[in-house]
Each structure stands twice: as C-alpha cells, then as structure tokens.
Amino acid sequence: MELYYHPQRITEASFSLTEEEAQHALKTRRLRKGDTLYVTDGQGTLYHCEMTDDQLKNNRVRVISREEKPAGQPEIHLYVAPLKQEARFEWLIEKAVELGVSRIQPIITSRTEKVYLRNNRLEKILIAALKQSLKFHKPVLEEALPLEKVWPEQGTLLFAHCMEGPKRIIVPELLTGELHLFIGPEGDFSPAELEMARSRQVIEISLGEARLRTETAAVVMLSQTHHALQMHQI
Length: 234
Hints:
Elements: E1 3-5, E2 14-15, H1 19-28, E3 36-40, E4 45-53, E5 60-68, E6 76-80, H2 86-98, E7 103-108, H3 119-132, E8 140-141, E9 145-146, E10 156-160, E11 179-183, H4 191-199, E12 203-205, H5 214-233
Parallel strand pairs: 1-3, 6-7, 6-11, 7-8, 7-9, 10-11, 10-12
Antiparallel strand pairs: 2-5, 3-4, 4-5
Helix pairs in contact: 2-3, 2-5
C-alpha cells in the first residue's frame, strides 16, 4: 500500500489532493483516471479512493470506503532537546514517527545549543514518515518550551540521564497510563534539572553503559518502550 495524506477530515464523496500530493501521485507514481489509491487524514481514518480526474491542478478523487484505525495505546509523548545540527534532529523526528510516538515536545534546557526550529520543514518530514510507515494518526509537533513548563500532570514520566544514582531499565511493569519520555541535550541534563525532575517523581532510566548522542538515545528509549509494550501484551 502506498499512502497519501490529506490535511483535513474528508466528509464529502469526492475531494482534491493537495498540490504536493497530486504531484507525487500523478507525476511520480503516474496514477491515472480509474486507478485506486489510499489516503489518510492523520486523524485515524483510512480512505480507499479512486482517481476520477487526473489533471494536476484540477485533480479529483472519489471516496470508495472509509475505515477507522485505532490509535496506539498507551500514548507516547517524547520530550527532547533540539540539536545544533538540523539534519540530526530531522532524522530523529522521522524515526520517532516510525516508532509510534503520539506527540513530540522540544525542550529548552540549560545546555540546549539551539532553540530555533523550522517547524514547517519538520512537519513535512513528519508527514513523509507517517506515510512511509503506514501510520494513520499524525503526531503533534509542539513549539519548543523550557523544561520547567512542560511537566505533565498525569501519566508515567521516564527520565533518562547519565548522572550518578540508581536507575531502572524500561520493563513492562513501568508502563502504565500515558508515557512521557524525557531525553536531554548533548552534555545531558544539569544537576539542577535532575533535581527538578525528581521533585516531579520521575522514574530515572538507564539506556545502557554507552554514552549516546541525543538522537540515538531518543530512538533507543522509544525502541525499548515499544518492545516493553509488546512484551506486556504477550
């Protein structure tokens, strides 16, 4: 299945693809009138469709059927410091979507090197990853905020860091309710930020002995969480 994206819920019997999606469907994939295609609105609906007009600027697509896809449970929220190198953070966004994250919250910490993000570009990368990995719920990408302003009021808070002290590994028993995964910047969270986290009753997490880059640590944490959730279902 090749998946296309439409930015709003489709309520009419027919609709038009966006310019970018039409370009891909008609120029790259060479779809023609009568061909079928699949579209998602990023809100959990999969539309089985037929191309009824294959003109690039006046394309038209007919909805054959709709199917509601359930969202992954529990929701996974990723809190991660932006990176100085944009390409590395873009790679992280892509992989986070593939691994089923529900929400991405960039956080500004005392050691964050960059706070400016091109969210329009990141949204395009997010949507491309959504389609490539056949996801039907588009994750929310938030504006960057200081760490002290992002603490959730409910759910399980998993806080990965490299400082001394007892830590746990991610196991199924830890994963209850909404999951909030915290990854610090290059150079880790500061001791003051760790104390702030402890006051929020976080679960301190170890990702292993190796010192990981921020984007690697985020992918490892998401992967371990995904694996633990699968184990919990067995």
